[in-house]
Amino acid sequence: MPEVSRFGRLAWLWLTLAVFVVDQLTKHYFEGSLSLYQQIVVIPDYFSWTLAYNTGAAFSFLADAAGWQRWFFAAIAIVVSIVLVVWLKRLKPEETWLAIALALVLGGALGNLYDRVVLGHVVDFILVHWQNRWYFPAFNLADSAITVGAILLALDMFKSNKSGEPAND
User: Fold this and answer.
1) Distance (Å, rounded) from C-alpha 21 to C-alpha 10?
2) Within a 10 A sphere around the Cβ of 128, how many other Cβ atoms?
3) Is the distance from CB of 36 to CB of 50 less than 8 angstroms?
4) Residues 6+ apart with CB under 8 A from 147
5) CA torsion through residues 130, 152, 7, 94, sign
6) Helix (H) or strand (E) holding 18
7) Confidence of residue 1 (pLDDT cuts 50, 70, 90)
8) Residues 144, 10: Cα–Cα separation, whole Å
9) Which residue from 55, 51, 26, 48 is spatially nearest to 37, judged by alpha carbons?
10) Rg (the chain; Cα; Å)
């Protein structure tokens, strides 16, 4: 069984940094380009750019609360981020897909954490809808990275053998 190196898979923090930077640049761009709730249709009936602020969590959960949720969700993001960094450090060299998944989730969590702490809300700008009848809540690149990372984590859980050897039937 391969040893865990001193730094595990921390080299994948470059991906975390890339997600964070691109997320912040796109949020800054859309905040400067759109007014609140303005919608620019990209693909009619399916996809638009918009500017929305979310003081809650996913799907605006607790957005109506009195303000305590800002620090509650920030604290959760900090704890999760620490856990993800420790997890990355403990990964084995062959756990590349898991490292990518963790780096994506960490980058997204830090992107939204920055918004929450510095701005007081998360900036969202991607709007998926169907013929102006059904709208998925607006989201951002940090949310997308978290989602892709979570899917990769779930797929990693279903791998038949974590050791890299073929599974025995």
Assistant:
1) 18
2) 14
3) no
4) none
5) negative
6) helix 13-33
7) very low
8) 21
9) 51
10) 18
State the pairing for strand pair 134-135/47-54.
Answer: unpaired
Cα first-last separation, the chain: 21
The residues facing 130 across adjacent strands are 134
For residue 97 the two structure tokens come to 């897909």
- What local confidence, expressed as pLDDT, does residue 55 receive? 76
Cβ neighbors of 166 (< 8 A, separation 6 or more) are: none
Sign of the CA dihedral with 38 first, then 40, 43, and 49 last = negative
- Best CA proximity match to 113, nearest among 136, 145, 90: 145
> What does each C-alpha distance from 27 to 14, 54, 70, 79 come to in angstroms?
20, 13, 18, 24
Tens digits of residue pLDDT in 115-141: 989 998 899 999 999 877 777 889 999
Q: What is the pLDDT of residue 7?
A: 74
3-state secondary structure of 164: coil
38 and 160 Cβ atoms separated by less than 8 Å: no
Assess contact for 140 and 19: CB atoms under 8 A.
Answer: no
Neighbours of 167 (CB within 10 A): 8
Catalytically active residues, by annotation: 124, 143
